Amino acid sequence: MRLGGRLAAAIEVLDDIERRHRPAADALKDWGLSHRFAGAGDRAAIGNIVYDALRRKRSAGWLVGDETSRALGFGALLLEWDQSAEALNQTLDGDKFAPEPLSASELATIANHKLNEAPDAVRADCPDWCAPLLERAFGAEWVAEGAALAARPPLDIRANTLKADRDRVIAELEGTQAAPTALAPHGVRIPPIDGSGRHPNVQAEPAFQKGWFEIQDEGSQLAAELAGALPGMQVLDYCAGAGGKTLALSAAMENRGQIFAHDSEKSRLAPMFDRLRRSDNRNVQVVSKPSELSALTGHMDLVLIDAPCTGSGTWRRRPDAKWRLTQRQLDVRKAEQSAILDTASTFVKPGGLVVYITCSVFDEENADQVAAFIERNERFKTVDHQALWSQHFPGRSDAVRFGEQGLSLTPARSGTDGFYFAAMRRA
Ligand SMILES: C[S@@+](CC[C@H](N)C(=O)[O-])C[C@H]1O[C@@H](n2cnc3c(N)ncnc32)[C@H](O)[C@@H]1O
Fold first, then answer.
1. Residues 6 or more apart from 30 whose CB is under 8 A from it?
2. By CB count within 10 A, which of 18, 94, 158, 179 is most buried?
3. Helices 104-112 and 57-64: angle between axes, nearest 10 degrees
């Protein structure tokens, strides 16, 4: 397929997402199934246009002067694919599968619309109702932070130190531009792709099958690192999901001590069993029933709460979630977070730590939750996060933002997904 056909397909998929309120991944998969002639390169290019259009929905629409799928598709190519409007029209000329080229009035709008003159929420590529949330979290930097959350993400990997090390993983991934991450000690980064390219399918690598590495954003690796799990500790990973953090904690503990991995949704824990086997993590016990946790009350050195959240810190990877999010969903997550903090913290022993993590950038889910928890539970005090950070990453306070209760990582500041981290010690 030429660019015109790929753009037309992307517009069709964007329409499907909008009309049927579908996740982007599902709509793309369906398109692929009903257009089997399209090759892997075509699918990657169509996926890139769709995801670029969703990440940059406001600015793409503003640039072309409309909010239709067509405007978003064209806008994405103009913003992210280094194409001028005139060059794009020339490329589409004579391609019978291409959408109608940009009209004279669209070309005039594009020529008149300078993105640096667009309203703030357009430059931040966020829904209007989220603008005050970002402004509260980032002050004068909120537009730049929003824009960074709308950029293409890298592919990050954590070398599994139980089986390999970072240099061996990088050597295995030769030819992929894999390089050490800036902060995470076992992290490997493959930079964001350009244009119609796609990241390598690293899960097809023999080294992945052998358990040498896991896919994990650098921010998630840093949060696990800062939690400070040590060999011999008793740890409860209370919202373990598929085990991204569990596996990192287990490697840090060198398989010594015990991790209890719990999640209220049994089905979310299911993929963990395969991951544990492949990675040779032998100190993890999966505990799906809440009743089986009661014996742990007051005995844990560390309780990790990787809380359910809006995921606003991962908008680069799941841009459709940005437009589906509602105030009501945020309120539901907030209620869940405070209930989980109260319950999970009962498992910490005196002198132990509860670590609260979200992949959200909103204060409402982060510092506010921690402040309210500490007010309700006077036995807990936050640790000195500046000291904790410089103990792990000396001289790199430029890469983090410290708040009164904890610290946060963002694409703009840290080059990672958005994460919040707060550690509280029980007296
Ligand atoms: C951010 S995800 C966890 C991701 C996982 N820790 C990782 O690193 O891959 C949050 C998890 O919290 C779980 N959860 C939601 N409410 C919960 C509750 N009340 N108790 C325990 N887990 C809960 C969700 O099912 C979800 O799997």
1. 16
2. 158
3. 120
Which residue ranges does the chain devote to CATH 3.40.50.150? Answer: 218-426
Which residue has the least CA distance to atom 25 on ligand 1? 265
Q: Which atom of ligand 1 is nearest to the CA of 358?
A: 1
- Nearest alpha-carbon partner for 387 in 377, 400, 374: 400
Q: Where on the phi/psi map is residue 410: left (φ > 0), alpha (ψ -120 to 50), or beta?
A: beta
Query: Separation of 242 CA from ligand 1 center, angstroms?
Result: 9
Residues with CB under 6 A from ligand 1: 238-245, 263-265, 268, 306, 308, 336, 340
ipTM of the complex as predicted = 0.99
Which DSSP letter does residue 242 get?
Answer: T
Query: How far is ligand 1, taken at its centre, from the CA of residue 393, in Å?
Result: 27
Q: Is 359 tagged catalytic? A: yes
- Span 258-268, pLDDT tens digits: 999 999 999 99
What pLDDT does 383 receive? 98
- Which entry of 126, 130, 309, 359 is annotated as an active-site residue? 359
- Specify the residue with its C-alpha closest to ligand 1, atom 2: 308
165 annotated as belonging to a binding site for a ligand: no
DSSP code string of 142-193: HHHHHHHTTSPP-EEEEE-TTT--HHHHHHHTTTTT-EE-SS-TTEEEEPPP
Tell how far the Cα of 369 is from the centroid of ligand 1, in angstroms. Answer: 16
Q: At what angle do helices 40-55 and 3-20 cross, to 10 degrees?
A: 50
Taking the CA of residue 265 as reference, the ligand 1 atom at the shortest distance is 25
Q: Quickly name the fold that domain 218-426 has.
A: Rossmann fold (3.40.50)
249: nearest Cα among 182, 160, 313 = 160
263 is in an annotated binding site: yes
| Band of pLDDT at residue 81, cut at 50, 70 and 90 | confident
How many angstroms does the Cα of residue 378 sit away from the middle of ligand 1?
25
Structure pTM? 0.97
202 pLDDT band, cuts 50/70/90, is: very high
Strand order in the sheet with 179-180: 179-180, 187-190, 155-159, 213-215
**CA pair distance 208, 421, nearest whole angstrom:** 28
Instruction: For residue 277, name the pLDDT band (cuts at 50, 70, 90).
Output: very high
